[in-house]
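Changelog note: in this version the structure field was regenerated for every chain. One regenerated record is shown below for reference.
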Amino acid sequence: MALKKGVDVKPASGKLGILMPGMGAVATTFIAGVMSIRKGLSKPIGSLTQMGHIRLGKRTDNNSPTIKEYISIAKLEDIVFGGWDIFHDNAYQAAVRAGVLESKHLDPIKEELEAIKPMTAVFEQAYVKKLTGPNVKKGTSKADLADQLMADIKNFKEKNGCDRLVAVWCGSTEVYRKPTDVHMSLDKFEAGLKASHDDIAPSQIYAYACLKMGVPYANGAPNLSLDTPALLELARKQNMPVTGKDFKTGQTLMKTILAPGFKARMLGLEGWYSTNILGNRDGEVLDDPESFKSKEVSKLGVIDSILQPDKYPDLYGNISHVVRINYYPPRGDAKEGWDNIDIYGWMGYPMQIKVNFLCRDSILAAPIVLDLALFMDFASRAGMSGVQEWLSFYWKSPMTPDGLYPEHDLFIQLMKLKNTLRYTKGDDLITHLGAEYYD
């Protein structure tokens, strides 16, 4: 659906329920962070919706309100949390098990976290081979499982008095799969659900159930989930916004910061070797070659899309781009990313850049979950449906409408995001051109 300028966006009144398939490290870090911020114990560092400003008009106007003042987004006090997981652990137990946050940050919100218990999950061992858990739905078919999820969504909304819901996938990476015939139309997909078709993954069942229930959906993993003709058809039919995929956190975040700089200065790139070591549940899952393949495809697309080797063959026509992920339990959630970058400059002289990013995966992902939930709720109230390309800023592998290549340059992505917000308010877009802006 085309975006209209100066939309009358429905106000963000009442409670917003945020539903998360997968309530492990990322989800519990997000939940605990919001609770801590609400109590004044933390600040929302890393969140564009909470800390970002947006410039309006000329620089000389000195008019840069915060984003949360500028557009109608839900207040943190109005958020309710829920979700599904294959383990019975409540949010406090899951957060302790994840080992991301220290007890000094969890203890002040222990009671609130303990009150959040996961609903039974849709799970299929064939799609996540390294995990198994007891808190799993049983059903006569995949259609029956989808119906059970829809009942969960309805009950959660009623029980918690929510006015609106959004869903953000925070679960594990499923094995790599390409779309097959069952994904080519909504009719075929629904027939496949009834027949429990092997090519319909749990993540697709969640996406289907949420969209059927009028819940905007964001896919935080590289799974083949939303990005099939069937589910995009359902999103259009339901007038629901969708976005994905794969949260842009550690190493890929660095690539989308550095690669645009090389291209801007017309510096050549010969090779980019990336390796990661991580020891959390995500690392364990990615130790399976098929799950790693999903992540590898998501990570590898970034450099080519930014550098456009077809347009700059002398600079980027023969890049050796290698990505490795190694499961190393002692590292836990504090993932370490090593990058060796071989660049060349004037007259072909070689140079090297070494990056060692000791990041905290869930700490970087948690504010992304918050921003996506709030922006997707905003998109829904603004009448925006289908693929929300303006949210590419948050994704390793951004979904795009048919016929468009993805934009991976972090700075172009941010400009597009903010210009989309300006457009919905009927304000002039900032292009950094023209004397009227003193740019």
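Spot check on this record: The longest helix spans residues 361-381. The two ends are 33 Å apart (CA to CA).
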